[in-house]
UniProtKB/TrEMBL annotation:
<dbReference type="Pfam" id="PF00583">
    <property type="entry name" value="Acetyltransf_1"/>
</dbReference>
<dbReference type="InterPro" id="IPR000182">
    <property type="entry name" value="GNAT_dom"/>
</dbReference>
<feature type="domain" description="N-acetyltransferase">
    <location>
        <begin position="30"/>
        <end position="185"/>
    </location>
</feature>
<dbReference type="GO" id="GO:0016747">
    <property type="term" value="F:acyltransferase activity, transferring groups other than amino-acyl groups"/>
</dbReference>
<protein>
    <recommendedName>
        <fullName>N-acetyltransferase domain-containing protein</fullName>
    </recommendedName>
</protein>
<dbReference type="InterPro" id="IPR016181">
    <property type="entry name" value="Acyl_CoA_acyltransferase"/>
</dbReference>
């Protein structure tokens, strides 16, 4: 049997046929299981927040309705005919600056911890560079939001040059990350 990282995979734009697969795609733990296990008085507030955050992630994925037209773009990673990853972002040109908001990088729970997140971020960065060349902008600004408890995502962003720029004011566990660079146009 092949290990997950050895399977052949392909990136393609999200399309109408991906809608059904997105309804069952899971990149976060099912929140309702955590709600049942909640113990009163012992980290109750944190568990409740984590459950809500995970349900928001899963709900956002289930609400995705490809295909998208610019400025929003969605790509899916398919391995062995199964949707394994989702990349969703938006582009905006502001003068000579290309502003990119990375909304979601999601890897299916069964395929996590085998380098697909890194490959997904590499694919995202190559698409942003390609877009910057096409638009001939002088500067690229990429921003995203990550849960403070998600150390794997934070480490991945740090390896790609992102820096932690603060917290989201109305969410105690969400931090903002940014990468600013000159375009190679």
């Amino acid at each position: 049997m092949q290990r997950p990282e050895q399977l052949e995979s392909e990136w393609r734009e999200g399309s109408y046929v991906d809608r059904f697969a997105l309804q069952y795609f899971e990149c976060a733990e099912q929140p309702f299981r955590r709600l049942k296990k909640r113990l009163p008085g012992r980290g109750d507030e944190l568990q409740r927040y984590e459950s809500v955050a995970k349900s928001l992630v899963q709900g956002a994925i289930r609400d995705l309705r490809p295909p998208y037209r610019r400025p929003k773009q969605m790509y899916v990673l398919v391995r062995a005919s199964v949707l394994t990853g989702v990349l969703y972002y938006a582009l905006r040109e502001a003068g000579s600056v290309l502003q990119v908001t990375l909304h979601l990088i999601g890897i299916d729970r069964s395929a996590q911890q085998c380098g697909l997140g890194r490959r997904c971020l590499e694919e995202f960065m190559s698409k942003v560079k390609q877009e910057a060349r096409l638009k001939a902008v002088s500067r690229v600004e990429i921003s995203t939001v990550v849960n403070q408890k998600n150390s794997a995502s934070q480490a991945l962003l740090t390896r790609f040059g992102f820096t932690h720029t603060g917290r989201v004011s109305d969410h105690p566990y969400l931090g903002t990350w940014a990468l600013v660079g000159e375009s190679a146009a």
